[in-house]
Amino acid sequence: MNFASVRIITDDVDRLVEFYERVLGVSAERPAPVFAEFILPSCTLAIGHSQTGQLFGAGSVVAAQNRSVIIEFLVDDVDAEYARLKSAVDDWVQEPTAMPWGNRSVLFRDPDGNLVNLFKPVTEEAIKRFSGRR
User: At 25, which CATH number?
Assistant: First the structure.
């Protein structure tokens, strides 16, 4: 089994696409006005309009209600990403910080309130844990 993607359901696809294009530095593929994908080497981040949620069963998904999942991206330089995105992000949760499991992380919320973590392993143990994942 291979992990394929994470999909964010939103009421404003264009706003989230614009936000993640800035964060990720890549353009989204837009096969339909209600759907977009960021196809990255390690994963795909999909964004679907709340109208598409009905295709998964009435009431199965609700836009902008997530408070338990963190969308994480492995980056080369956490501090440089923080500086680059400082003016683009409205809701910073945590400035660059060393985490107890060996990563340096910065956390913020996207326009729908989803938590995003940009991180880099910095301790020897964390670097070993992530070797081969890029």
Answer: 3.30.720.120
